[in-house]
Design a protein that fits this description.
With about 170 residues, the chain is mainly alpha-helical. The chain is built from four helices and three strands.
Length: about 170
């Protein structure tokens, strides 16, 4: 039989474990976000140093090319010349998602990873907009506008979040 004091200690220790687990989880999620931003920036630096604007280099001829483009619009080259608007939206997104991830009460790791991918991609593209006034794109599959790793992370992250929302709705019913 568990005495009152032992049960109180068990609950107290369980709370500490839960808080510690939550802190570790938050650190890992932020690590995902900052890793995406770092990899994105490194890949853009390499592309900028090795390619000339508009130049295409075949990686897999007829399928995948590296093409350096400076994009003043949104992801995948849409809404050109809206740098101020997209910089403002990016700052709001980075701050909002950052606050959400730090204060979240979610138990859907898929959604949290999705938000981390979106945050990392938004940071990567925001850094370009603040530094260059545009975003460096270089991944070119020729059937889609030229894009970058940040754009990919944002897209995949949104899909993770949507999947989590759909799964949560299914559990509710």
């Amino acid at each position: 039989m568990i005495s009152g004091n032992n049960r109180k200690n068990e609950i107290k220790n369980s709370g500490r474990t839960s808080v510690l687990f939550r802190q570790i989880e938050t650190l890992l999620i932020l690590l995902v976000a900052f890793s995406v931003a770092a990899i994105d920036q490194l890949s853009k630096i390499m592309a900028s140093q090795r390619l000339v604007q508009g130049e295409s280099v075949a990686v897999i001829k007829g399928f995948f090319y590296l093409t350096l483009v400076y994009n003043s619009g949104a992801a995948f080259g849409i809404f050109k010349s809206q740098t101020f608007f997209f910089t403002t939206v990016s700052i709001i997104a980075v701050v909002s998602i950052g606050i959400y991830l730090l204060k979240r009460n979610s138990y859907f790791l898929t959604a949290d990873i999705g938000f981390a991918l979106v945050l990392g991609g938004a940071i990567g593209n925001l850094f370009d907009r603040l530094r260059l006034g545009c975003v460096v794109d270089f991944l070119d599959f020729r059937i889609w506008p030229v894009f970058n790793i940040a754009d990919s992370a944002i897209t995949i992250g949104v899909l993770f979040v949507l999947f989590s929302v759909a799964r949560a709705e299914k559990w509710k019913s």
